[in-house]
């Protein structure tokens, strides 16, 4: 089982850069299948109206229910006052499993965190090379799992990568995805600090090639058990929390479309992962 935890889907409305113009899935899905990726977390590109953008993502998820898992994109300022409703709709109607926040627009606000807590969803947040904000929100909401996109920086800010590596070790509820991280040794650093249990494979598709991003994880040459955590186990664990709640939160809506059969519980519930393992590179 391989889960890509970071991919965009649907059309943007601003058309000033690829990430707010179009995130077409056809090539992505072909490439992901060829690379052996089973499931992919998808959310909108940057957009001027996330209610519309999330609906678009829901339609794509409905078209590929066995391969795609939706996350609800919210803008902390523009959507203020309606975030709970947006998240509730996404969870109960479309079985979305998480929240996406982009620091370019807003960092996680209390309203976002409270919606995440209410539905027990992980928050995938791009902190745009400003990892200091993690020291604010992570200890304020220890019950929410935060996944830091791009190990803190899409723009190769090594200080951000370095700081996030330490934050993985410091905060039990802070994780990071590997999407778009170009400086390989900071992934190694994050592993040494946080352990394999704290990293999730992500591609930042469709703009980055999922096979190429996946190869970075293979190049870590980890013991199979630890590689399995990064490729799927950690995502399964974090997303299952969401699924469990959505099943019990409302008896009126059907069970989530996604069931994870891949890894045995012992593979990803282990507290015995040896964080001091020497990574052979
Ligand atoms: Zn992205």
Q: What descriptors fit this protein?
A:
alpha/beta, two-stranded antiparallel sheet, 281 residues
Would you mind describing this structure in some detail?
The protein has about 280 residues and is an alpha/beta fold. The protein starts with a strand and ends in a 13-residue tail after the last helix. Helix 3 packs parallel to helix 4 and helix 6 (about 160-170) packs parallel to helix 7. It is globular. The chain has helices at about 25-35, 50-65, 85-95, 110-120, 135-140, 160-170, 185-195, 210-220, 225-250, 265-270; strands at about 5-10, 10, 20-25, 40-45, 70-75, 100, 125, 145-150, 175, 200. The protein has a single domain (about 5-270), classed as TIM Barrel. An eight-stranded parallel β-sheet has the order 1-4-5-6-7-8-9-10, sandwiched between helices. The chain binds zinc ion. Zinc ion binds near residues 6, 8 and 204.
Examine the secondary-structure arrangement and name the CATH architecture.
Alpha-Beta Barrel
Global structural class = alpha/beta
Total number of strands: 10
CATH class: Alpha Beta
State the oligomer: single chain
User: What coarse outline follows from CA principal-axis ratios?
Assistant: globular
* Helix residue percentage: 40-55%
Measured between the Cα atoms of the first and last residue, the distance is: 23 Å
Element string (H = helix, E = strand): EEEHEHEHEHEHEHEHEHHH
The bound ligands are: zinc ion
Question: What percentage of amino acids are in beta strands?
Answer: 5-15%
Q: What is the CATH superfamily label?
A: Metal-dependent hydrolases
The unreliable regions are: 241-281
Q: How many H/I helical runs? A: 10
Number of separate domains: 1
Main sheet properties: 8 strands, parallel
């Amino acid at each position: 089982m391989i889960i890509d935890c970071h991919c965009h889907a649907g059309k943007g409305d601003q058309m000033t850069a690829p990430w707010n113009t179009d995130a077409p899935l056809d090539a992505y899905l072909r490439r992901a299948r060829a690379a052996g990726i089973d499931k992919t977390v998808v959310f909108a590109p940057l957009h001027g109206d996330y209610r519309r953008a999330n609906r678009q993502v829901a339609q794509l998820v409905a078209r590929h229910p066995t391969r795609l898992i939706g996350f609800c994109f919210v803008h902390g300022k523009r959507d203020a006052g309606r975030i709970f409703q947006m998240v509730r709709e996404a969870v109960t109607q479309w079985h979305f499993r998480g929240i996406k926040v982009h620091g370019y627009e807003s960092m996680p606000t209390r309203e976002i965190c409270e919606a995440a807590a209410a539905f027990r969803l992980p928050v995938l947040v791009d902190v745009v090379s400003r990892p200091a904000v993690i020291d604010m929100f992570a200890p304020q909401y220890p019950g929410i799992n935060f996944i830091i996109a791009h190990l803190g920086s899409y723009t190769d800010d090594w200080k951000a990568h370095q700081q996030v590596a330490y934050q993985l070790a410091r905060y039990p509820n802070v994780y990071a995805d590997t999407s778009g991280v170009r400086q390989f040794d900071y992934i190694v650093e994050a592993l040494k600090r946080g352990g394999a249990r704290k990293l999730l494979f992500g591609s930042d598709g469709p703009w980055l090639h999922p096979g190429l991003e996946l190869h970075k994880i293979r190049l870590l040459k980890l013991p199979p058990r630890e590689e399995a955590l990064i490729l799927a186990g950690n995502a399964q664990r974090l997303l299952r929390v969401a699924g469990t709640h959505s099943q019990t939160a409302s008896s009126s809506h059907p069970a989530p479309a996604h069931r994870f059969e891949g890894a045995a519980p012992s593979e990803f519930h282990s507290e015995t992962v040896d964080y001091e393992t020497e990574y052979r590179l």
